[in-house]
Specification:
Number of domains: 1
Oligomer: single chain
Number of helices: 4
Order of helices and strands: HEHEHEEH
Helix content: 25-40%
Shape: globular
CATH superfamily: Glutaredoxin
Largest sheet: 4 strands, mixed
Length: 107
Amino acid sequence: MAEFEYAHTDLAREEVDKWTGPALLEFGTNWCGHCQAAQGPFREAIAGHQALRHVKVEDGPGRALGRSYRVKLWPTFIFLKDGVEQARLVRPESAEEIRRQLLALGD
């Protein structure tokens, strides 16, 4: 699987809620033009944050994890600290938007 691809996962919200440290959930689909466009700025912003837990979640109707976070548009980036949502970005257009949230997490 290429690094830009979203993976179908059965990850449960209860499991994510137990994560420790900074993490990023990225919801989207492989065919979404907005998701594809966000990958360049995302790669630029993530440079230097290799220790960050980053999970790309394929989203869609009936996908429980996305519904639990009330994801409506793709891509949606949810920034977590110790399993608790700290911020979210929907369809970010710049690396700076993403970088700001990563720095706020303390990663």
